[in-house]
Amino acid sequence: MGHDSKQITQSKAVNVPNEEEDNDRDTAYFQYYALLSHQAQMLQDSVRTTAYQKAIFGHGPQCFQDKYVIDVGAGNGILSIFAAQAGAKRVYAIEASNMVERLQHFVNASKQPQFDGSTLNPWLGDRIKPVSSKMEDVTVDTLGDGVEKVDTIISECLGVLLVHERMCESFLDARDRFLKPGGSVLPSSGTICLAPIEDKVVWEEAANKARFWDNRNFYGVDVTPFSEAAWEESFSSPVVGCFGPLIVLTPSNDYQIDFQTISKENLKRFTIPLSFQMTQTAVVHGLGGWFDLHFLPLPSSSPMTGATFADGSDTSTMIPDLEMSLNQGSDQPSSNNDATTLNMSTLSAIADLAALNGNAGEPGMSDTTQLDPSVSSTYMTTSPYATPTHWQQVRFLLREPLAVNKGQTLIGTMLCEVNQYRSYTLTAKIQIQGSSDIHSQRSAQWRLDRQIYSWSSAAPAPQ
């Protein structure tokens, strides 16, 4: 039973887990984040760590100097530490995993003399207060110090495609209950980016996993009764892994989530409109996804201007000579694209290029493609056009690839709804605009918590 013998179906309803299952899932989640090995992986992501350092130091006088701060999901405390370095009076480092014990040890070490009489990080003092709690369980009494509201809330609440793991809701909970009027949240917004991809290599990897169950004579056994479930499972699992820009067929559609204003309810269910104008004939194997992150406008008097960081980047905007596949002057992408050669200084140019290709101004699309340093102090991206991060990118594969001609437009929607697995269920419907042929339509559903990984970085399929 091959994949082409079945209509595309949405995943069947799953049993809603009970409270005990939820608690077990939370326990496993927090145990994972209590591992120093995992914390090191995040710290060593220089794109991530440098972006936050730039944002915090760049807004030191505005958001941190002599301010009260909450760090949601503090982990190893790196954002709390940056906030303390930026002059925060007190940082409440909220952490639900046992990593909070490591952080408390770190804080205590700054107060204890070493054998030679010196102290570690003496500037830290009493600036950081680790708090062992989920953000939702924090109260004014938990914070102590008589503090009811804080000036700034920071968090690295991000997962695959921005929203996986649902930590953004905890970020918003802190904002709604503890932020002073006129206070600041960092990051201030995030952008989900989606684009059609042609990736036969990874599509075949997914299909081959399902094809095993098409076997009618496996040790004398017909296993095809498992086949339909196998195809459904294989193509409802997002594929996480870096991919190069060569497989991206059009500029992305960008959907902005404003952490300053969005409600928790609106974050739990939202719809991303899709519209992709094809500039080459291609086979669409699915959608590629990534996210961008934005912080508050950088004050013109900020001491960050011209600063240089450990990664060698600075706060100036340099526009390199970009020969990218989104330059739609030819049907074949440039061979000079290498995701690892671009750094954060190229991102403004990438955004300008996307705007020139027609994303700006479309209904439901983000206008953050036009951001520059005068609008956003730090613009971090997990795009395939930039330095890879530990989030990588994600492929959402169609069970039935869709052939699209040059000049045609793919339209549709992606509905994003929270599920009970600390994640989202994504339901997409796409079709070739102007065609009523059922063969030009595709429906698919993916569970973002059912991620699988691929180390293939595929080039475009042969034409």
Automatic annotation (TrEMBL):
Protein name, entry field: type I protein arginine methyltransferase
KW Transcription (keyword) present: yes
Gene Ontology CC annotations of this record: cytoplasm; nucleus
Keyword flag Cytoplasm: yes
Molecular-function GO terms, alphabetical: histone H3R2 methyltransferase activity; protein-arginine omega-N asymmetric methyltransferase activity
Pfam families for the chain: PrmA, PRMT_C
Annotated region described as Disordered, given as residue ranges: 1-22
